[in-house]
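[INFO] parsing input record for DNA-binding transcriptional regulator, MerR family
[DEBUG] input buffer:
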Amino acid sequence: MKIGELAKLTGVSVRSLRYYESQGLISAVRLANGYREYSPLAAETVKTIKLYLNLGLTTEEIAGFLHCVLKNKEAFCAEVMPLYESKLEEIERQLHQLTQIKLNLEERMASIRREREGSGTETQAKAGRNDSNGD
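[DEBUG] output buffer:
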């Protein structure tokens, strides 16, 4: 099948398919006219790639085990579980960092609100907005 057909069948853009090919994740035979011709198995490969991208893996990480999971069950590919564990640790670190940022923002906002309440600035700011509207 041609690249456009593969794109329609899988819901992946032609640009992404070319990228997957450049990364060695899929391959095509080049016809005499230069067009790419993909085997029917390419659609299943692209769907598998999409699954792993949706798990937050990079194409480089996927390339390390894609061949194995296409031939075997995922459970029998030794590369998969350590990668999942590493990705989960990375996500836990990111969640912790985001939680800290959220707490810092909430504290800054609370501090600003306390300061405004203490000086009456919030009331003045609201009044100023009404004045600037010509009210």
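[INFO] Strands lie at 29-30, 36-37.
[INFO] shutting down worker
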